[in-house]
């Protein structure tokens, strides 16, 4: 099926309909799982349980089968969850985690959580991601804090690290990952930690000398004054080293409009005002992006179209929405 000739608006409408249909089908699948398990039809088909039936006969992966089976069993106790599944406020992963916690609680205390208590917990994890869900469940079920640190060497000489970070330590590391999203676009923790370590070591161990060349006025034989700017250019002997500094002359009358340098103080204020998040908002719903991925200081009215360098014309955008604005302005 080709979707190239479909308008943007129609494509979005189609996608939303498909997602709603998918959620409805998901809850129907769960209901069928319950009925087949209730009738023990898997036994007639030669399977020892629903899990085997789902994986071996229907081709579900182990994790997919587990999520559906656990969610179905929770749905059996709380039929009203159908609406939550259909509107997307709760997903199978969340239901599975709650069901697992309820089971562990029963094994630990011998007391089964009531439907009302379970429903209250489910209400607290609605529309939350995996991390926020696990955090909420850890609090609600009073799960023990695991303080653990270990190093495990592996056959390829890599090392597996397991450790526990405090809330403050993780917040600092999370902020570093957001700020490094330009150089570590995948957000891989190993890459982020490695990058931070390399830069720290480089600053502490290696002696670095930085040569800064300032703009100067160059005299020549022409009546038209020129400005000379330092620029890094490779030389025949500079391969693998820092490029040599040379000077390039441009006629002063032909210099293009130069952007003003945005000070660190201004950038700091802009990021603080934006709460270190992308400020783009959905034009229809007004819902903000809130991404912390590859944040950039960008112009509200494009600089290339005459926008000023004033802080009032600057905002924080993630890379995706910066590119979107550029496309809309015809700059890409």
Explain what the structure shows:
The protein is mainly alpha-helical and 332 residues long. The chain has four domains: 8-136, no CATH class; 150-205; 216-254, no CATH class; 264-328, no CATH class. Helices cover 47% and strands 11% of the residues. The protein has twelve helices and seven strands. The protein has helices spanning 8-39, 41-44, 50-57, 62-77, 81-87, 92-109, 115-124, 130-140, 167-179, 189-205, 264-273, 319-328; strands spanning 150-153, 159-162, 216-218, 226-233, 244-251, 296-299, 314-317. Helix 1 (8-39) crosses helix 4, helix 1 packs antiparallel against helix 5 (81-87) and helix 3 (50-57) crosses helix 4. The relative contact order is 0.05. Mean pLDDT is 81; it is low at 216-255.
**Estimated share of beta-strand residues:** 5-15%
Q: Within the largest sheet, what's the order of strands? A: 3-4-5
Report the major sheet.
Answer: 3 strands, antiparallel
Counting copies of identical and different chains, the oligomeric state is single chain
Q: What order do the SSEs take from the amino end to the carboxyl end, as H and E?
A: HHHHHHHHEEHHEEEHEEH
